[in-house]
Write a structure and sequence with these properties.
heterodimer; A: mainly alpha; B: 0% helix; flat; transmembrane helix (chain A); protein transport (chain A)
Chain lengths: 212, 10
């Protein structure tokens, strides 16, 4: 564990609490992409298969269960409790391509051609693009509630912070996981435009608005 | 690479 990894994980946790807070306080899931949320459930279920056979390190296990549980809970909230507020018409990014493309990447790049390793690789590639339906929805609406942008920022910062964590581990421990690093870099690049608008507008106290 | 202890990151 190093400071970048810890901050990354805390940022990931924060993103989920911000999302739940947004849904609760505005009593609405407007502006939140159901498709991205569904992809995250798929990401966590395929990545954390090792929950079935261990080893169960306390920190990792609690976090894994939390990420699976909270992502399923958000889907439940969106599907049932706050269904009418869901932007179904605009939230129509074709996730089939993301899932299919990630699966092909997982078949090509994996540590071993076994079910769990292919699923682990699949989860990394899918996570790297899972925010696209959310960013697409943002693009379609052209603006977002500030709290929603805080959520997306915290979620993007988590993987961005894993990059210095990997560099640190490579230097200090001689350990490097190329699939995770490469997918993590792609994921951070996917967020680049969003980060730019977030830093130049939201942080300055302005509303998140995209040029028409 | 993967160690016998499994994946240690989230």
């Amino acid at each position: 564990m190093n400071i970048f990894r810890l901050l990354g994980d805390l940022s990931h946790l924060a993103s989920i609490f911000i999302l739940l807070h947004k849904i609760r306080t505005t009593k609405s899931c407007a502006g939140i992409s159901f498709r991205s949320q569904a992809l995250y459930v798929l990401v966590y279920l395929t990545r954390y298969l090792d929950l079935l056979w261990g080893p169960w390190l306390l920190y990792n296990t609690v976090m894994k269960l939390f990420f699976i549980g909270s992502s399923v809970y958000v889907l439940y909230l969106m599907k049932f409790d706050y269904k009418p507020s869901h932007d179904m018409g605009l939230d129509n990014f074709k996730v089939e391509y993301l899932i299919g493309g990630s699966f092909v990447m997982a078949l090509l790049f994996n540590l071993a051609f076994t079910f769990d390793e292919v699923m682990w690789s699949f989860s990394l590639w899918l996570e790297s693009v899972a925010i696209l339906p959310q960013l697409f929805l943002l693009q379609r609406t052209g603006e977002a509630e500030t709290i929603t942008t805080h959520y997306i920022f915290a979620l993007g910062a988590y993987r961005a912070l894993y990059i210095p964590n990997w560099l640190y581990r490579w230097v200090m421990e001689g350990r490097v996981e190329f699939i995770a690093v490469f997918a993590g870099i792609i994921q951070t690049i996917v967020y680049a435009d969003f980060f730019y608008v977030y830093f130049t507008k939201v942080i300055q106290g302005q509303k998140f608005e995209l040029p028409a | 690479g993967k160690e016998k202890g499994g994946k240690d990151e989230l």
